[in-house]
């Protein structure tokens, strides 16, 4: 009996997402960090460690598909926890915010290395193109009136 390879679709993509996210959530729970906070830490780190609050809120709403009030609460919680601080009209990662992000990033990279080990570069490139296109189409539909 031969088992056919499943086609990529919302179900297979979702299962892969939730399985890998569950591994990351184990890391985050040990640090007391939420997934939304980890996304905010990455966004700020990728932006050089500082950004306007509105930029960060917008980044969270766009990436996580959450409403502005939820994104704003995440930023407030992080500021109250000392992970972010006001800096010249912007928000900046504090030293503890940077340390937390580096630990989470390192653990996430280790998870990804295990999960993607042995997959052909051309398969990863194809999957990347397909998922990027699906994301663009979904974002366009969400933005439509």
Describe this structure in words.
The protein is 72% helix and 7% strand. The protein is globular and about 60 Å long. The protein has six helices and three strands; from the N terminus they run H-H-E-H-H-E-E-H-H.
Produce the secondary structure layout.
Blueprint (H helix, E strand, L loop, with lengths): L9 H22 L3 H12 L3 E2 L1 H12 L3 H13 L3 E4 L2 E4 L1 H22 L4 H23 L2
Antiparallel strand pairs: 1-3, 2-3
Supply the number of helical segments.
Answer: 6
- How many strands appear in the DSSP assignment? 3
Major pleated sheet: 3 strands, antiparallel
The strands making up the biggest β-sheet line up spatially as 1-3-2
Low-confidence stretches: none
Sequence of secondary-structure elements: HHEHHEEHH
- Report helical residue fraction: over 70%
General shape: globular
Overall pLDDT metric: 95
Strand proportion, as a percent range, falls in 5-15%
Give the termini distance in whole angstroms.
49 Å
Taking Cα atoms only, what radius of gyration do you get, to the nearest Å?
17 Å
Structural class estimated from helices and strands: mainly alpha
């Amino acid at each position: 009996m031969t088992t056919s390879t499943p086609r990529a679709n919302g179900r297979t993509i979702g299962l892969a997402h939730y399985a890998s996210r569950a591994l990351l959530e184990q890391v985050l729970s040990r640090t007391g960090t939420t997934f939304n906070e980890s996304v905010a830490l990455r966004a700020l780190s990728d932006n050089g460690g500082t950004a306007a609050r509105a930029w960060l809120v917008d980044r969270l709403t766009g990436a996580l598909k959450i409403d502005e009030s939820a994104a704003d609460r995440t930023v407030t919680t992080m500021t109250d926890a000392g992970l972010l601080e006001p800096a010249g009209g912007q928000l900046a990662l504090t030293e503890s915010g940077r340390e937390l992000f580096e630990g989470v990033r390192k653990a996430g990279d280790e998870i990804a290395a295990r999960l993607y080990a042995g997959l052909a570069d051309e398969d990863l490139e194809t999957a990347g193109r397909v998922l990027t296109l699906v994301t663009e189409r979904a974002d366009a539909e969400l933005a439509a009136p």
